[in-house]
Amino acid sequence: MRHHLNGQEWCVCESGFDIGKANVFETLFTLGNGYLGTRGTLEEGFRGEYSGTYLNGVFDAHDASVIDLVNAPDWLPLAVYVHGIRLDVQGCKVLSHQRALDLRQGVLWRETVFEDPQGRRTRLETLRFASFADPHLCVLRLAVTPENHGGPVVIESALEGRRSNLDLLPAYAGTPVFPPEVKWDKWAKSLHLAPVMATCDQDSLYLEMRTIDSGIAIGLASTLLPSVPPLRNTVERHATRVAERQEFLIPVGVTLSVDKFVTIHTSRETPASGIAARCQEELAGHLASGFEAALAANAAAWGRKWEASDIVIHGDAAMTQAARFNIYHLLITANPADPKVSIGAKSLSGEGYRGHVFWDSEIFLLPFYIYTQPEAAKALLMYRYHTLDGARDNARANGFSGAQFAWESADTGHETTPKWTADGRHRIWTGEEEIHVTADVAYGVLTYVAATGDTAFLTDYGAEILFETSRFWLSRLDEDTASDRLVLRRVIGPDEFHEHVDNNAFTNRMAQWHLVQAARIHDDLARKAPEALAALAHRIGLLPGEAAQWREAAGRILIPFDAGSGLIEQFEGYFALKDVPVTEWDGNDMPCYPAGYDHFNAGETRLLKQPDVVMLMYVLPDEFSDEAKRVNYAHYEPRTLHKSSLSPAIHSIMGVEVGDRARALQYFRRSALVDLLDNQGNTQDGIHIASAGGTWQALVFGFGGFRVRNARMSFRPWLPPGWSELQFCLFWQGSRIQLRIGREQASFLLETGPVTWVPILVENQEIILEAGRIVTASLCPETAS
Questions:
Q1: Is position 183 annotated in a ligand binding site?
Q2: Which of 116, 269, 355, 661 is the most exposed place for a label (fewest CB within 10 A)?
Q3: End-of-domain residue from the set 293, 308, 323
Q4: Residue 770 structural domain
């Protein structure tokens, strides 16, 4: 089956089985298609596995401290028994073990040679995928070869509904390290699934479970299709598990092949009464077409995704592979067909952050989709629209008007941030105080509209989001009589080390920007679409003078600023804190906590977890001069510890902008390899999907130099030493542009589409792109260096 794989530049590989790294590879090797994600655990399982299949939008709160993205029924289990002995990594000797994730077509290949206690060697090979052509289909091919023996072989396939989510962890003294086989046993688990139906016959298995609190039905149908008829086929049914066992006699050296097809549906998209019939009907159709047809359809769908999304770094194959790995995970986690789901902080690859949606969705993830997969971007923003009622409830619950988006959001938009860390030791305040997320959502809306020209989305959905959230800011701002300014007290900025602060610059400035933009959109609609504005005003009770109030309030918001130094103060009182220097760096040349400090007391100092003022200058590039960026970057960068995976990519982009280019490349590598090298130490919990989005931005916005400035595409690229060319695509106003950024020149091809010409800036020189014609621009020596 290895012949199905593409070349090394498209593959991420594992050689040898190391149980200490197994959970990390489970995350790395996650398969998905936006509808579901399945972690890359071994088909037969092992003690210490962290297996999981997650269905986008399937949340449940039963038996849990905080609502979870449910660890759904498992479609994967497929075990092999030889002479009655189960082949697995703990009951047999592993003579060789290799796996490869083919990023180009989203397939996971595996080959393992086992030796059982009697010295019998058996080779297993598998190939599996979650189809992009049919998101409800998962397929697994197994090949079994007895290498030095012949005799009975049993294949056991199951659908497993006995699943649980990790919930709470006891507070242990010190920092104990548990053996990998038992570390997940230390967690308290939450139960979210109850049995509905379990049936089995000689042709197929069917299992249906229902989430206990949210009432979502989940149905799975599966069957095995062997290369030769089995001697015997038996089935086993329990309330939460169904299985079939096929028995064979296999001569020495002969390979048995078995295909497992699985179809999955939920009551989110299919009426509960029809799930079983739909799963069975689709299963029969895929069986009739066969494995090769399903594989080819999946590869074709992937080809279309990559055509719009691929990035090639000529001169650096390793970083091209890393970029593709991050893009792969971005592609498998968004569902353009479902406007009621977004992307959790660990995508569909693990239970970290319980599947909750953060500001990451708009600031770190949305740009990738806007410029490569616009339909997915629209769906992500529609999730915010569909959870607007939850945001309204949040505002009312906190004593404010309008709509306040949750810091952590699940299916309804209500605030779902836990109050305490998993071990119960530390209070979490972000749900109450990290309110900038509301402005971040508005930022996402307007970034999408500017890039796509989708004014219908703005009129039909986006304006309502902007107006309701502007009402929130107006009610959240306080009068400060001493300064005659409007202030935001007791907040947490993006940095997150510093809690309960007043007038965080990022939060205040983004609220100000938000109010100005909402007033502008209101005025635009009044001129261009007065009937639509009148209908919206009637629906939400918008009064004629509200937009003027937003504009007036924006002009009075306090922004902490030191005119003498040119520094924006991160929040009031920040400059008075103890300035503790960073004196140690880890093996990746990243800062270590100074002695005596950690995440929970670093707020006593000027140390930062991640960019805050620097982040502000990144998201509002038109608002700050190059000199202001240099001054503030020079002050805050040395004090930033990068204890969030979100941090390095932004510093990479800003490093390019301010000329700190050696660090820019270092930060990019840190972001690009965060999961491949597990450099945060927690990849086992799921992919750092925001870092994946940040990695794409570092390549395109940083080294590619692309930014939208004054509503126009602008390019100021810089390529690191050794990179000869950077190649990628961007969507703009519905048309696709192919770009090749070299060391001395850049070329652009506007493909035929709804836009026939586009004016762009390349190093502040205007160039007109015409559809179907390659346009080349020279780059200045400073850029090419």
A1: no
A2: 269
A3: 308
A4: 704-785
